[in-house]
Amino acid sequence: MPLTDLTDLTVRGVPVFVHTGGRPLDPARPAVVLIHGAGMDHGVWSLQSRYLAHHGRSVLAVDLPGHGRSGGEPLGSIAEIADWVVALLDAVGLERAALAGHSMGALAALDAAARHGGRVEAIALLGVAERMPVHPDLLAAARAGDPSAIDLVIGWGHGPRGHGGASGGGCPVPGLALIPAARRLMAAVRPGVLGVDLAACDGYGQAADAAGAVGCPALLVLGAQDRMTPAKAGRALASRIASSQVVVVPQAGHMLMSEAPDAVLDALAAFLSLRRD
After folding, report:
1. What is the rounded CA–CA span in Å between residue 121 and residue 117?
2. What are the start-end ranges of the H helices in the chain?
3. Where does the UniProt annotation place the signal sequence (predicted)?
4. CATH number belonging to the domain at 6-134+205-271, selected among 3.30.420.40, 3.90.180.10, 3.40.50.620, 3.40.50.1820
5. Is 75:62 a contact under the CB 8 Å cutoff?
6. Domain ranges of the chain
7. Which of 7, 26, 78, 269 could disulfide-link 204, Cβ–Cβ 3.0 to 4.6 Å?
8. Quick one: CA torsion of 146, 147, 153, 158, rounded to 10 degrees?
């Protein structure tokens, strides 16, 4: 574990783990908070967090409460997650930050920007749509801790690249097979957490109103082969945000950060005005 990771941080009295990308958190540098999706943790940003931290940003790749190495219970609604992100900024002494979120994390970033605009510099929303309904059978399986829920999320979440070959490989990173890696990540989730997360996504019906209230710049990164939050739905959400841009990644599904790490980094670096080597 890098010494720069925040391992003794508490937010609202609950211990929280934050990965800083291998560099100390520097309040003098512009910050970006990376918010993971349902049933996941900071590790989904492993191919982006280090780069961002070494190219001009202070990085806070969070484990939300009840996830990864953070304590507490999972938060039951998107609004609660958004408010928690602002409380995290307070805990580390940051007045403002850019927020980058994936899926559930994207809804939280959107909601935070709409209701806490003075604290949010910009938002990058990956794998997002105005509505994220979850089938009742999947919700029930996730709440019960049925392993089939993880298989369904992983199967639907990956595009053609993730399903390439018998092992579900196809990853641009040598030695990493996408679907097995995602399965290992989600297998570590605590019982019931995935169900809470999916219910939060299913129950969030305020995205359209939130988009209209966003006053900061927004980037939406969408997978052309995303079956969970189709690019068409992401574009519709973007159209409601006053200052937005859209990047559609060819051949990528919902798990954009691992399926297309370079494309995601290119989009984030340009949006956050970083130098891209």
Report:
1. 8
2. 46-53, 78-92, 104-115, 136-143, 147-157, 178-187, 193-203, 207-213, 231-238, 256-259, 261-271
3. none
4. 3.40.50.1820
5. no
6. 6-134+205-271
7. 78
8. -170
Antiparallel, parallel or unpaired: β 14-19 and 6-11? antiparallel
Q: CA geometry: angle at 22 spanning 120 and 157, to 5°?
A: 65
Please provide residue 205's backbone torsions phi and psi, each rounded to the nearest 5 degrees: -115, 15
Relative to beta strand 14-19, strand 58-62 is antiparallel
* pLDDT by 10s per residue, the chain, length 277: 455 788 889 999 999 999 999 999 998 999 999 999 999 999 999 989 999 999 989 999 999 999 999 999 999 999 999 999 999 999 999 999 999 999 999 999 999 999 999 999 999 999 999 999 999 999 999 999 898 999 899 988 888 766 664 344 455 655 567 888 888 888 888 889 999 999 999 999 999 999 999 999 999 999 999 999 999 999 999 999 999 999 999 989 999 999 999 999 999 999 998 544 4
Residue type, 112: A
* Number of Cβ atoms within 10 Å of the Cβ of 146: 16
pTM of model > 0.85: yes
**What secondary structure letter does DSSP report for 118?**
G
Task: Determine the length of the chain.
Answer: 277
